[in-house]
Specification:
Elements (H helix, E strand, L loop, with lengths): L1 E10 L2 E11 L4 E5 L6 H8 L7 E6 L2 E2 L4 H5 L2 E4 L11 H12 L5 H11 L15 H13 L5 E5 L7 H14 L4 E6 L2 H7 L2 E6 L2 E6 L1 H8 L4 E7 L2 H9 L4 E6 L9 E8 L6 H10 L3 E7 L4 H11 L11
Parallel strand pairs: 3-8, 3-9, 6-7, 7-8
Antiparallel strand pairs: 1-2, 1-4, 4-5, 9-10, 11-13, 11-14, 12-13
Helix pairs in contact: 8-11
Bound molecules: adenosine-5'-triphosphate (ATP).
Length: 322
């Protein structure tokens, strides 16, 4: 478990992390997301014991990284954005080296064999790291994080620079590691958190602006209150009818062609979280405008993110997740 409590980091007078608190529960994969300069790296660096905090606490499995860094670091496997690998070593030599550095007491051969199996690098273990593809070097980076079997895994931008196939492989690897570890990963790739994470913590200007599942974020942000309709009838009549519906803020005709005569598609935006489908249905039916199709528009995580960092919505979720 990772607990961040009232964490503050000042660089001189620059408040990089402004009293943030959140928890990553055992067995959870949490995405730590934010725009450039939001405070992600600063938080990750404090979490891994690389930077000191101005105030607050970071507990790893109950141990304060600032008070007791050696014991806390034993519980952490860290993969920085640039994997800390030695290109002139073979994979096996490097993992043996990391094992020695971490002073692990597990059975060396068995433990490293197991890690190689988990991250699927057994077949390249005798090759020089410098001769491996970027995706495989990243796997070696994951392998070093797993040495010593730490309960907490911290990954910084783990898929940056990989090709699409490698990205999918690495995401699957993170998901499988999440079954036996507590994982926090920082990323600015929004689809990544959607694909991999159980929960998302969004930081903006040093403050937590959301701490929720992707589904909850969708509800909180309100950006999903758009619907797409296919309606039979004159577009001007349809648009003016839609605009009479209480809660509808916008109705826009789409440039889509259909086989049916006088059939058009529209995007309707509503102001609140109320489901206005019933009102739209009866309003159009009263004017004999037949709805042929009605679907809620799924908001992309990009829309949600922009809405969160732009106007600070989701304040209700600020702070811990408990
Ligand atoms: P990015 O995605 O661009 O890496 P980030 O979310 O990781 O951004 P941080 O690197 O943590 O953000 O930076 C947070 C704030 O602290 C920014 O305003 C940054 O300029 C500032 N900052 C970071 N490191 C230092 C430093 N060593 N000295 C002074 N200010 C710093």
């Amino acid at each position: 478990m990772i607990e961040i409590k009232n964490l503050v980091k000042l660089y001189g007078t620059n408040l990089a992390v402004d009293n943030i608190s959140f928890t990553v529960n055992d067995g959870e994969i949490v995405g730590f997301l934010g725009p450039n300069g939001a405070g992600k790296s600063t938080t990750m660096n404090i979490l891994t014991g690389y930077l000191s905090a101005t105030d607050g606490e970071c507990l790893i499995g109950g141990i304060d990284i600032l008070q007791n860094p050696i014991a806390a670091k034993k519980k952490i496997g860290y993969l920085p954005e640039i994997p800390p690998v030695y290109l002139e070593m073979t994979v096996r030599e490097y993992l043996n080296f990391v094992y020695d550095l971490k002073k692990s007491t597990l059975n060396k051969k068995k433990h490293i064999d197991e890690i190689c199996e988990v991250v699927k690098i057994a077949h390249v273990q005798h090759r020089l790291i410098g001769n491996l593809s970027k995706g495989y070097r990243q796997r070696v980076g994951f392998a070093q994080a797993l040495v010593g079997n730490p309960e907490v895994l911290i990954f910084d931008e783990p898929t940056v620079g990989l090709d699409p196939v490698q990205i999918i492989e690495i995401r699957n690897l993170i998901k499988s590691l999440g079954k036996n570890h507590t994982v926090i990963l920082s990323t600015h790739i929004l689809s990544e958190v959607q694909a991999v994470c159980d929960r998302i913590v969004v930081i903006n200007k040093g403050k937590i602006v959301a701490n929720a599942t992707a589904k909850e974020l969708d509800d909180i942000s309100g950006v999903s209150s758009k619907s797409k309709l296919k309606v039979l009838g004159n577009p001007d009549t349809v648009i003016s009818a839609l605009k009479t519906v209480e809660g509808v803020t916008e109705a826009v005709l789409l440039d889509e062609k259909f086989d049916e005569a006088d059939c058009h598609a529209y995007i309707v935006t509503a102001d609140g979280s109320d489901d206005i489908r019933k009102k739209i249905f009866f309003t159009l039916a009263a004017r004999e405008l037949a709805i042929l199709n009605f679907e809620a528009c799924a908001s992309s995580i990009e829309d949600i993110f922009i809405s969160l960092v732009k106007d600070g919505k989701a304040e209700g979720t600020e702070g811990g997740n408990n």
